[in-house]
Amino acid sequence: MDKGQIVDTRRAHAECPVTAVQSEYHIMWREPETSIFPTSKELGIGFVPYSPLNRGFLGGDINEYSQFDPAHDTRQTLPRFTPENLRKNYRVVEALHRFGRTRGMTAAQVALAWLLAKGDFIVPIPGTTKFSHMEENFRAADFTVAEADWQALEAEIDAIGIAGDRYPADEQAQVEKR
Ligand SMILES: NC(=O)c1ccc[n+]([C@@H]2O[C@H](COP(=O)([O-])OP(=O)(O)OC[C@H]3O[C@@H](n4cnc5c(N)ncnc54)[C@H](OP(=O)(O)O)[C@@H]3O)[C@@H](O)[C@H]2O)c1
């Protein structure tokens, strides 16, 4: 629900019932909680978080030394994926690892289980090229974590802070908001 698409869910839903809205959402980008969730809940519209692992970063396999294919990988253009910001933001991944260690969860599973715990109307679409990751990601739905524990994790990540914007300034200017 961005980049020049229709942004008024309520108006769209009145014209033709909307089944689901798709937008970026993960523990490092929580804007949909205020911009989309209230309308989704009120009107019974599903929410599909894309890039729920922050384009792979929350899986823990990407760091400041990662190389992105200059011809095909758009992450190299995103402020959060500069080597300096990857190094700073890796503290978020370390927090997910710490959280998961005592619960038998990988960092990716913590990221996905956190997101699933936000509501039944949420259906994330993590991308992968590996069956092992697909199975790992599916199993995120098997974990139950107390709401207070999720809140503690959110507080820890809030305290860390996120380095780098979602998009470069020229692209961000094209993102419509409701
Ligand atoms: N509507 C839109 O504007 C929009 C924008 C962006 C994306 N999308 C869609 O959203 C979906 C997912 O987005 P995305 O691929 O950008 O981001 P993502 O799901 O956040 O991350 C995908 C990356 O995570 C890695 N990964 C997956 N599972 C992992 C695990 N368990 N441990 C470690 N790494 C793991 C994958 O690498 P491996 O291949 O090595 O597993 C891949 O590089 C796609 O269907 C995409 O088309 C939509």
Automatic annotation (TrEMBL):
Keywords, comma-separated and alphabetical: Oxidoreductase
Highest taxon above the source species: Bacteria
Short name of any one Pfam family annotated for the protein: Aldo_ket_red
The UniProt record lists the keyword Oxidoreductase: yes
Keyword Nucleotide-binding included in the entry's annotation: no
Domain named NADP-dependent oxidoreductase: residues: 10-155
Protein name stated in the entry: Aldo/keto reductase
Natural source organism: Sutterella massiliensis
